[in-house]
Amino acid sequence: MNKLSRQAVFYTALLAAWIAVARMRIWPPYLFPAPGDVWQSLRFGFADHSFVIAIGTSLRRVLIGYGIAVLLGVLLDLLIASSRFLQETLGSLLLGLQSLPSICWLPLAVLWFGLTEKAIVFVVVMGAVLSITIAMESGRRQMPRIYGQAGRNLGAHGLRLFFFVSLPASLPYLLAGLKQGWAFAWRALISGEMIFVSLGLGQLLMMGRDLNDMSQVVAAMALIVAIGYAVDGLIFRTLERQLQHRWGLERAA
Description:
Blueprint: H1 3-24, H2 35-47, H3 50-81, H4 84-88, H5 90-97, H6 106-113, H7 117-142, H8 145-153, H9 158-169, H10 171-193, H11 201-210, H12 214-246
Helix pairs in contact: 2-12, 3-7, 3-10, 3-11, 6-7, 7-10, 8-9, 10-12, 11-12
């Protein structure tokens, strides 16, 4: 049985179990909707464009925040790499802050930016930038010293050494950090959108809760999972395969 067959069997069994539990009426239908009810919510949501608007709004926010996080992550890593003092001070601070859930930044964001778009983008940035910076720093530390010595012997120094030696050598770690940063950014976005009216997928989740409409809640959750899975599969897994092919790291069939 190949991978696709195993996945088909698993999800078919999962759907059958969902239908069976829904028909047992352990909870009222408005608390535990059947798959058909969720499908109807999805159909109505796309028909009245509420899901389309929410998806577009959420994607725009996360792309802006994630793009800023990647830029800041690269700049922070360059700054840390420039000084042993900064490695021991700023580097340790970033490592400590990474354990802080991104939603913890929301009160500060609201106080600084108010209930605005900027507050949500700020939370997205803080959710992703730390993991990206730390991944790049880890990549530099794992890089064999001979690479840096060879680059300096060939005349590469400063930014030239970073972009032509350190950065390519740390690509596997950087890609892992970018992937993790995307996951953190996506979760931070949804958490931020759930706090106040924001027209995103997070708001649709809260609207479903306020209206006791679990069909809408589950439908929004399904969209959030689907978008996250699509980005991971279409972008990050494709980049991983290309990187493995270039470095000769493909797994044997």
